[in-house]
Amino acid sequence: MPTLDSRPLDPLAQADASVPVSVPPPAWTERALCEADLAAVVAMEQDACAHALHAWTTENYRSSLRAGYWARVRCEAGSGRIVAVCVAMDGVDEVHLLNIAVARDWHGRGLARAVLADLYARCRRLRAEALWLEVRPSNERARALYLREGFVDIGLRKHYYPAATGREDAIVMRRAIDLPEASHALD
Ligand SMILES: CC(C)(COP(=O)(O)OP(=O)(O)OC[C@H]1O[C@@H](n2cnc3c(N)ncnc32)[C@H](O)[C@@H]1OP(=O)(O)O)[C@@H](O)C(=O)NCCC(=O)NCCS
Asked: Which of 17, 18, 121, 141 is found 20 to 30 A from 108 (Cα to Cα)?
């Protein structure tokens, strides 16, 4: 019988519960957004956006908290620094994604997709059939993310956003949520 040290490096050995497996620690933790976070969240989002005008203001976040919207942050493990924020509003049979932002140094690492996955799970818990959002046509990164995530364009709101020169339209996008059968949902 080989000792632990002399075992060959066989990937199948990972299935053996007696072999210690090193599991990487989670890269972030998730919690509710609170008033004390607002300065850090606004600074993070302004830095993440192509233009400061595109970012939410402290007052936008504050009124979302007052309204009781679903507002969550992700904090980097260890430092506790806020690296993502997401705000969504519940409607009748649908949820509206109001804002999502990821710290610039975390872009392209799948954090937004993870945040959206949490939101889809919330939609399923609420039995919401669809998730809606608006996005600037010029926001190519966000557009690519949403298209890859299965959102489809369903309309245009003219002159919706303030822009550096005048106003910018908003593309309205929708993603259907696969709901489990009602009998399972009641479990
Ligand atoms: C849009 C945003 C939230 C994406 O966050 P992210 O964590 O970088 O996104 P992810 O790493 O989960 O990437 C998911 C997809 O986004 C797209 N994407 C991410 N980084 C990209 C980049 N640098 N260039 C182009 N597309 C990119 C890709 O389609 C990617 O798919 P892939 O993982 O299969 O390659 C982030 O860029 C951001 O905070 N932007 C500023 C705020 C903003 O615009 N919010 C959206 C308002 S509608």
From this structure: 121
